Recover the amino acids of this structure.
């Protein structure tokens, strides 16, 4: 069977469709007039909701910071939480602007890479959330607790913070899209976060890169 | 673009849109949803159509980009317009032309295309639509050499599958 025969079969398929495919023009007008929710629009909606929730959380953290501003350990923890939340909100805003700039009329590889890239960007959020890990063990450490807890408290607190810091550094360094394709535990961690679309997007990113390679 | 022109455009290209949706979706509801999304995006993008571009290049880009995105979202993102009753945007009457074996070959070819990876599927559809390597490269955003290499591999696999299936037929 020659390769051109496939095109012949496809032409026969064309002829069949020409004969038997009926287009309902009335419904077609309805599709035009109704504002169908596109996949992109639902994605933008989810990001806008994320931005609103993020801003509310940021305000809450701001109030928290105001109350603990004279207590150094707590204040530093709150500053880290505020910074991470602000970065996440900024990333969401960037994604919305990128997605609004995506045109389906552009070439397929570039468009799909942008879309998959945005979906994978949640990996960056995951890194950011792990980076805050040690501060979850410090945000409640008030001046009074330090004074009253004394050496006993520090002997428990410092090793916990150290372990969490080491874990945070390891996780932050390793949780990347590249590593997800190389290291099983990173892949499991990302997929285990329950975000199926992310793992699909990651697989697709790899497919796009392979597809783009010559030969 | 005027509505009448747009309707004519869709009417003229209904076969292409059907083939793309059929290649990316197995069941009828999914196909219907994808058709709606492709038509909606074509209508929406009509204003941005650059007359310097070849029309078919633009249309294939939009239809295939929508199909791949739709396929990857695993559909049902709330975009379905229910028309009520048993109405469908496109109806395919079951008219077998009885030309010995061609129906089977069409089914086999469709099955093969459905099993390809998303981007390979787009590449194969464009090849079957008799686009030149240059046009395919332009639509997909890869080099002509890459188009040739990938097509040669896919066609090789397709031939093997056809040979295998003929052994069983």
């Amino acid at each position: 069977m020659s390769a051109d025969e496939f095109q012949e079969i496809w032409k026969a398929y064309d002829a069949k469709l020409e004969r038997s495919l009926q287009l309902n023009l009335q419904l077609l007008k309805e599709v035009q007039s109704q504002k169908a929710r596109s996949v992109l629009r639902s994605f933008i909606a989810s990001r806008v909701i994320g931005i609103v929730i993020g801003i509310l959380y940021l305000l809450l953290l701001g109030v928290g910071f105001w109350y603990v501003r004279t207590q150094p350990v707590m204040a530093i923890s709150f500053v880290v939480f505020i910074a991470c939340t602000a970065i996440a909100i900024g990333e969401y805003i960037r994604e919305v602007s990128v997605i609004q700039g995506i045109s389906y009329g552009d070439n397929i590889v570039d468009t799909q890479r942008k879309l998959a890239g945005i979906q994978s960007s949640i990996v960056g959020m995951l890194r950011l959330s792990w980076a805050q890990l040690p501060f979850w063990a410090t945000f409640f450490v008030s001046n009074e607790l330090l004074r009253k807890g004394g050496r006993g408290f520090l002997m428990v607190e410092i090793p916990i913070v150290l372990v969490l810091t080491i874990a945070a550094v390891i996780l932050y360094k390793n949780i990347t899209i590249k590593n997800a394709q190389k290291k099983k535990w990173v892949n499991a961690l990302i997929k285990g976060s329950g975000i199926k679309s992310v793992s699909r997007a990651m697989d697709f990113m790899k497919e796009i890169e392979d597809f783009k390679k010559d030969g | 673009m005027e509505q009448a022109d747009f309707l004519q455009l869709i009417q003229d290209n209904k076969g292409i849109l059907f083939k793309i949706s059929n290649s990316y979706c197995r069941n009828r509801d999914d196909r219907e949803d994808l058709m709606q999304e492709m038509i909606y995006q074509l209508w929406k993008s009509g204003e941005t159509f650059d007359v310097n571009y070849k029309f078919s290049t633009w249309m294939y880009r939009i239809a295939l980009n929508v199909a791949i995105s739709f396929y990857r979202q695993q559909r049902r993102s709330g975009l379905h317009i229910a028309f009520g009753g048993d109405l469908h945007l496109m109806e395919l009457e079951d008219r077998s032309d009885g030309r010995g074996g061609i129906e089977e070959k069409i089914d086999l070819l469709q099955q093969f295309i459905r099993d390809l990876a998303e981007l390979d599927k787009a590449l194969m559809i464009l090849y079957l639509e008799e686009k030149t390597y240059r046009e395919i490269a332009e639509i997909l955003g890869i080099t002509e050499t890459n188009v040739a290499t990938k097509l040669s591999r896919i066609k090789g696999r397709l031939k093997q599958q056809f040979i295998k299936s003929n052994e069983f037929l």
